[in-house]
Amino acid sequence: MSEPAELSYREAVRSAIRNAMQDDPRVFLMGEDVGHYGGCYAVSKGLLDEFGPDRIRDTPLSESAFTGAGIGAAMGGMRPIVEIMTCNFSLLALDQIMNNAATLRHMSGGQVSVPLVIRMATGGGRQLGAQHSHSLEGWYAHIPGIRVLAPATVEDAGGMLAPALADPDPVLIFENALLYNDTARVDGLAKADIDHAAVRREGTDISLITYGGSLGKTLAAAELLEQVGISAEVLDLRVLRPLDEEAILGSVARTRRCVVVDEGWRSGSISAEVMARISESGFWNLDAPLARVCSEEVPIPYAKHLEDAALPNTDKIVQAVRKLLGR
Amino acid sequence: MNAPSQKVQLNRAHCRQLMHQLLRIRRFEEKCAELYTQEKIRGFLHLYIGEEAVAVGTMQALGPEDAVVATYREHGHALIRGVPAGAILAEMYGKQEGCSRGRGGSMHLFDAAARFFGGNAIVGGGLPVAAGLALADKMQGRPHVTACYFGEGAAAEGEFHETMNLAALWQLPVLFICENNLYAMGTALNLSESQTDISAKAASYNIASEAVDGMNVVDVEVAARRAAAAIRETGRPYFLECRTYRFRAHSMFDPQLYRDKDEVEQWKDRGPIARFREWTLETGELREEDLAELEELVAREIADAVSFAEAGTWEPVEDLTRDVGAERRQ
Question: Where is the secretion signal located (chain B) (predicted)?
Answer without folding.
Answer: none
